[in-house]
Amino acid sequence: MKKIYEKIINKHILEIRHKPYMKFLDIKGEISNFIIKLRRFNFTYWHISDNRLDFMDTSGKIKTFVSLTNFGIVIENAPSLNYFKDQSTLFLNNLLEFPGFSDRDITRLGTRSFFLVDRKQTFNDIKRKYQDKFLDLNPKSMEIFNANLVDIGAPFYFEENDKKSSFNTRSGPMKKDQMNSFFIDSKLYPNNIFPESALYFDIDYFTKDIGKKNDEDLFNIVKNNIDRSIDIFIKFKDYVLE
Predict the structure, then answer these.
(1) Beta bridge partner(s), residue 114
(2) Which of 146, 176, 165, 161 has its CA nearest to residue 204?
């Protein structure tokens, strides 16, 4: 079987929202010192504002934040699809050791992932596959518009069968000049990293009204949300681009 060329550019965000934790305003300094000393991440840059703390490692690829109402981690240009889950659970495991974090009343736990899939296909080839296979726009439906379809994309909103979680997706073929609107940091994403065209996909997967959970249950929700997002992405790209 011929090996298929594939390059994936990706970015991920884990955000955990909770009811306001007013004590945060009094212990910002202690939290900052705690996070800076997490040797595994080597956070060397930080910014402290009235209601939020931001940290970044030396590579600029791992960023974390803590505020009055949320905390999370951002992974830029991850080297593999498993990297986001590994780093998120590691950071969360460390952060929950700080007194008070395990007791947050969580209102929303969400993961957001952005992907560009390059298989060295032209924009028109990707557009045609997306139109015919994913959206299933047949010639008869296109006659409604009586015009040439230049670009295409679609947002969708889904609810899981168990009604515990939901997710939004956006997708479509994308040209090179659009890509830096989604992958903004020019140091991490120089213009020469982008292909001439790619399949774009992003997914916002979230669980609401979680409340207070023990650490193990919280880890399981994070892992499940990330695994589900990655699984949907893999099935989507392989179906559209095959």
Answers:
(1) 11, 202
(2) 165
Q: Which uninterrupted H or E stretch holds 138?
A: none
88: which residues sit within 8 A by CB, 6+ positions away?
Answer: 12, 14, 73, 75, 111, 222, 226
Q: Where are the domains of the chain?
A: 7-241
pTM to 2 decimal places: 0.92
Q: Are strands 43-48 and 52-57 parallel, antiparallel or unpaired?
A: antiparallel
Q: Is 122's pLDDT higher than 90? A: yes
Asked whether 117 and 235 are in contact (CB, 8 A), the reply is no
155 contacts: CB under 8 Å, gap ≥ 6: 168, 169, 170
Q: What letter would DSSP give residue 118? A: E
Instruction: 54-61: list long-range contacts, CB under 8 Å, 24+ apart.
Output: 60/185, 60/187, 60/188, 61/188
CA–CA dist 150, 36 (Å, integer): 49
pLDDT digits (tens, 9 = 90+) for 147-190: 888 888 889 999 999 889 999 999 999 999 999 999 999 889 99
- The DSSP code for 48 is E
Of 176, 178, 175, 181, residue with least CA distance to 193: 176
Query: pLDDT tens-digit profile of 6-52?
Result: 999 999 999 999 999 988 889 999 999 999 988 788 899 999 998 99
Residue 143: its pLDDT value, please?
83
